[in-house]
Amino acid sequence: TFVGRIAQDLGLELTELVPRLFRVASKDRGDLLEVNLQNGILFVNSRIDREELCGRSAECSIHLEVIVDRPLQVFHVEVEVKDINDNPPMFPATQKALFILESRLLDSRFPLEGASDADVGSNALLTYRLSTNEHFSLDVPPNHKQVKPLGLVLRKPLDREEAAEIRLLLTATDGGKPELTGTVQLLITVLDVNDNAPVFDRSLYNVKLPENVPNGTLVIKVNASDLDEGVNGDVMYSFSSDVSSNIKSKFHMDTVSGEITVIGIIDFEESKAYKIPLEARDKGFPQLPGHCTILVEVVDANDNAPQLTVSSLSLPVSEDSQPGRVVTLISVFDRDSGANGQVTCSLTPHIPFKLVSTFKNYYSLVLDSALDRETIANYDVIVTARDGGSPSLWATASVSVEVADVNDNAPLFAQPEYTVFVKENNPPGAHIFTVSAMDADAQENALVSYSLVERRVGERLLSSYVSVHAESGKG
């Protein structure tokens, strides 16, 4: 599927895509999108599932790094993934059993678990409809997801002897076009006797819980009261029957005291909040339930150090490189949030390099001043990433930058002038003196060869009297 003309949008010619090693990288899912190097078109390479990629996040995008060489350039591209209505509303189960006393008062409310829709936006806006009946209406609070669930409201008194069982169909419809629906069958059993259910002090409790608290930490102690007497007024606490296994692995409910304590790892990066539905049941026959919801907000702690990734090294660096040359690319990431997840980067002091921010949490290590290999041939650059937590956490990455030699130094003799005394009548080829010169450059740039500067001595050329070996300097 066509996404866009990425080469044209980035100002690149089609003919230079292959020679400049045009490539696209994605930190998370690099196989979803691909670029045709012949026409510069970005296209979908494999099926994109927005719900799998971004979950319930309102915004969803794929971040791409487009890299070309000669010279090295990096472009950051955000591809927005738009939602389509491809997920119907889903209830936790296809059938829900409710047990209701025939003595319950009119306007009594019985909570229901609402449906969820994996889509976002209007595609996930749900409306509910209850099948026609004479006993119950549906109560849909405007903000039921945050405060309390759906509920059945008793509008006409029940008579178990007249109707011991009532079957209703609850339908959830999303706001997509075309709209999709999901249903749950409500099986209501009308019970006799014990006509007061336990009632919690509050229908909604809000609790703040720091992450990483030790097991046994008290989250909250709830209380429910029952107007009945004897065993019909004795209350036992529990999680609701449809509570998730994840909540059961994190929290423990004391059935007698109503205390909720921590039994698992509470990690802000795993979950920022927990919605815990509770029940309080009396010991009458049959038992009657009361309900409330605990909203546990997890408070972030600075327990994750920044992570550094060094990529696309362009080494070695020639000593005649101009300031501004990109040496390597560096990305940072911190799983914490707020100030705990805000990362700043710094370099080893007193080096000819600097960090340039190219995108959110992306940096380029660039040359800041002139290099001289003969002074320093290698730099061990330490990049430090530090978050804004208190106390702050940090991480480091080392980049070894080798400085490549250029031929910028002439050979130097040990002294500018030599005086040599030679006896007359020496045979040809006799050694009279050796000169030596050094070159501060490296490898082939430091290889020295010797030769005489020709001039006349009397009637004859200097080379007719003496010679010098090109490699050893012997004369």
From TrEMBL:
Per the record, the GO terms for biological process are: homophilic cell adhesion via plasma membrane adhesion molecules
Answer yes or no on keyword Cell membrane. Answer: yes
Instruction: Look up and give the membrane topology term.
Output: Single-pass type I membrane protein
Which protein, by its recorded name, is this?
Answer: Protocadherin alpha 7
Sorted keywords for this record are:
Calcium, Cell adhesion, Cell membrane, Glycoprotein, Membrane, Repeat, Signal, Transmembrane, Transmembrane helix
Pfam families to which the protein is assigned, alphabetical: Cadherin (PF00028), Cadherin_2 (PF08266)
- All copies of the Cadherin domain together span 22-91, 115-200, 201-308, 309-413, 414-473
GO terms assigned for molecular function: calcium ion binding
Q: What is its main location?
A: membrane
